[in-house]
Design brief:
Length: 124
């Protein structure tokens, strides 16, 4: 499932209703719709993700202060992986998937660059 399914359905239904000759998939209108929706979605995703990571860091810092002096930290697994590290790994997987969905919509490199800000260098 793609977060861009509603956009795909909207475009498909518009083309079906108006006809491929009236509204071809390569028309400027379709390209503009895709670019605008995907760009706005990517910008919002980046903003929300950055805010979530800031809150997570603050929570981990609070837990560290709370657990100071205790032998076991609640935010670290047995293997020594913090909750933030686990979440970062999952985010990288999610971002790669969203980027692939964006590529499938054939958006511009400028729009792809928005989501690329979330990719770690080794994942680009």
């Amino acid at each position: 499932m793609s977060i861009f399914n509603p956009l795909k359905l909207f475009i498909d239904s518009a083309i079906e209703e108006l006809g491929e000759t009236t509204l071809p998939r390569t028309s400027q209108t379709i390209v503009m719709w895709k670019e605008e929706v995907v760009e706005q979605t990517a910008q919002r995703f980046v903003k929300e993700l950055n805010e979530m990571m800031t809150r997570l860091r603050k929570t981990e810092e609070s837990l560290k202060r709370f657990n100071k002096g205790k032998k076991v930290s609640m935010n670290t697994t047995e293997a020594g992986t913090s909750m933030e590290e686990k979440i970062q790994r999952q985010i990288q997987l999610d971002v790669k998937q969203i980027r692939a969905q964006m590529e499938a919509l054939e958006v511009t490199e400028k729009t792809l660059a928005i989501i690329d800000t979330l990719l770690e260098p080794e994942n680009k």
